Amino acid sequence: MQLIKTNIDMPIFKITADNHKIIKPLILKSIESMGSYSVINDDQRITNTDWHMGSQFKRPYFEHVKFLIENVAKQAGQYFNYENVRMSNYWYQQYYKGDYHTWHAHGECSFSCVYYVDLNKDNPKTSFRVNKNEFDVEINEGNVLIFPGFLEHTSKENISDGVKTIISFNLDV
């Protein structure tokens, strides 16, 4: 796990998924098999997501990311010396051209995580904000960002034709 240094002292970590090239097509195919579920309101325009679906909703992509999520939880626990770090929830989001997610935080969890499943160079990354100071971190497809749940973040409007696919998950200690 690599600590990312920014001009604001904030524990943000980046992990690269070892088997990303293998699981990416499996994840995308699983998401495609689920149908399309949009969330569009003043705060977000997300063409395809299962964030708002209940816990009973079948999510076949999870079998392909379960090991990765367990590994992220284990590394976060080791770094902060927590014996028990567990996932509280997870969801996918696909940002098509014109999609965005305004500033928000996941205050109900210890850590929020974003796995960049499908990300081209023109897709917006995740931006962060502390006390109106905005900053970005360098990420690539196959990376997982881990950051405090209270940290405000956004996915700015996708102005590219490429779809950005992420899997978010929250961790609790």
For this entry, give a set of tags:
19% helix, globular, 173 residues, six-stranded antiparallel β-sheet, Jelly Rolls, alpha+beta, 13 strands
Give a summary of the structure in a few sentences:
The chain has helices at residues 20-33, 62-80; strands spanning 2-4, 12-16, 39-40, 44-46, 48-49, 86-95, 100-104, 111-118, 126-130, 133-136, 143-148, 152-155, 164-172.
Q: Uncertain regions: pLDDT < 50 for 5+ in a row? A: none
Classified in CATH, the superfamily is: q2cbj1_9rhob like domain
Number of strands: 13
CATH class: Mainly Beta
Query: Which H/E pattern describes the elements?
Result: EEHEEEHEEEEEEEE
Strand order of the largest sheet: 1-2-11-8-13-6-5
Distance between the termini: 18 Å
Global mean pLDDT:
93
Topology-level CATH name: Jelly Rolls
Strand pairing plus helix content: what structural class?
alpha+beta
- Proportion of residues in helical segments: 10-25%
- Largest sheet at a glance? 7 strands, antiparallel
Shape field:
globular
Percent of residues in β-strands: 35-45%
How large is the count of helical segments? 2
User: Whole-number radius of gyration?
Assistant: 15 Å
Mind telling me which CATH architecture this is?
Answer: Sandwich
> How many structural domains in the coordinates?
1
